[in-house]
Amino acid sequence: MALALSLGRRGMGRVWPNPAVGCVLVRDGVVLGRGWTGDGGRPHAETIALSQAGNAKEATAYVTLEPCAHHGKTPPCAQALIDAGVARVVIATGDPDPRVAGKGIAMLGSAGIPVDIGCRKAEADLDHQGFFQKVTQQRPFLTLKLASTLDGRIATHQGHSQWITSAQSRRVVHAMRARHDAVMVGAGTVEADDPMLNVRGMGTVPQPVRIVLSGKLDLRNGLHIAATAREQPVWLFHRPDVDPLRWQNRGADTFAQDPKDLRAVMVALAESGITRVFCEGGGTLGASLLQAGLVDELVVFTAGCAIGADGTPSLQAIGVDTMDDAPRFVRTGIQAVGPDVLTCWRPATPKD
């Protein structure tokens, strides 16, 4: 199952609106076939693994998510496993999608195939969290990235910010972008930095959707996102009273949803199939997401330099009056990245 989970992660950022699933077929201790969800969500992992195996009769299938049981654009994977004659299926976690939700397990059981559920479930639940939240909470998984000095600043008082962190850290950020369906920023970041918001230096990979929250939609001409909107998707969220025609003519998709209502933005993204969002700022948007309780993972790059109190803080005000009001996180990882330090955090739960 550890192998199946690692294979499934290869699909992160490449398979939305579907989950990134991994599958391994084993017989007599020999791996017959391996698979992970194909780009765009198809073929499914089980289909690829079965095709690679050729003959999977009497094999054990290890799958990171309950096999689908419905006829969509492809036949049910549960039926494919039955038809292949597998002897046993080990499933990491169930699928909450109403079209599946236990039906795949029941289909396998009705065919007389033993099914074990829960192997490395905690890991699988984390890997599939974006898909699960899209289905059950109508919002994608959201990672908030911060990159700052030792004193939590992201720019000097004159707005100069390139570069605070190292080239090694920036390369890691590109890898993180590649594992998300979309990259999200606010209008202020687009105006100040004119970012490309793409994945570079990772070979040929599917590019994430670029989401920009701009209430007035008054972004200046000549921006990278405008020049490349037909090459890499640009989704703009704006107030309903703003005319988006100028951006639509450039190839951007527009959503008449006020960006101030971040929960409604998340719902719109989930309805559009997005499962994982990587937010790169700026400080106002990051603070608003924390205030709204929409941050599922926080990744912080810290550089060994200081700017001082007149610099721009990594987060704007979030209305914390007492420490009891402060959003709390539990550290899940820490590592050196060149001269910088990367720390990863998840929201604290009551038991923490």
UniProtKB/TrEMBL annotation:
Residues 1-116 form the CMP/dCMP-type deaminase domain. Pathway: Cofactor biosynthesis; riboflavin biosynthesis; 5-amino-6-(D-ribitylamino)uracil from GTP: step 3/4; Cofactor biosynthesis; riboflavin biosynthesis; 5-amino-6-(D-ribitylamino)uracil from GTP: step 2/4. Keywords: Hydrolase, Metal-binding, Multifunctional enzyme, NADP, Oxidoreductase, Riboflavin biosynthesis, Zinc. Its EC number is 3.5.4.26, 1.1.1.193. The active site is at 46 (proton donor). It comes from Cognatiyoonia koreensis. Zn(2+) binds at residues 44, 68, 77. In the N-terminal section; belongs to the cytidine and deoxycytidylate deaminase family. In the C-terminal section; belongs to the HTP reductase family. Substrate binds at residues 161, 177, 197, 200, 280. Its cofactor is Zn(2+). Converts 2,5-diamino-6-(ribosylamino)-4(3h)-pyrimidinone 5'-phosphate into 5-amino-6-(ribosylamino)-2,4(1h,3h)-pyrimidinedione 5'-phosphate. This is Riboflavin biosynthesis protein RibD. GO terms for biological process: riboflavin biosynthetic process. NADP(+) binds at residues 147, 163, 189, 193, 282-288. Binds 1 zinc ion. GO terms for molecular function: 5-amino-6-(5-phosphoribosylamino)uracil reductase activity; diaminohydroxyphosphoribosylaminopyrimidine deaminase activity; metal ion binding; NADP binding. It catalyses: 5-amino-6-(5-phospho-D-ribitylamino)uracil + NADP(+) = 5-amino-6-(5-phospho-D-ribosylamino)uracil + NADPH + H(+); 2,5-diamino-6-hydroxy-4-(5-phosphoribosylamino)-pyrimidine + H2O + H(+) = 5-amino-6-(5-phospho-D-ribosylamino)uracil + NH4(+). InterPro entries: CMP_dCMP_dom, Cytidine_deaminase-like, DHFR-like_dom_sf, Eubact_RibD, RibD_C, RibDG_C, Riboflavin_Biosynth_HTPR. The keyword Transmembrane does not apply.
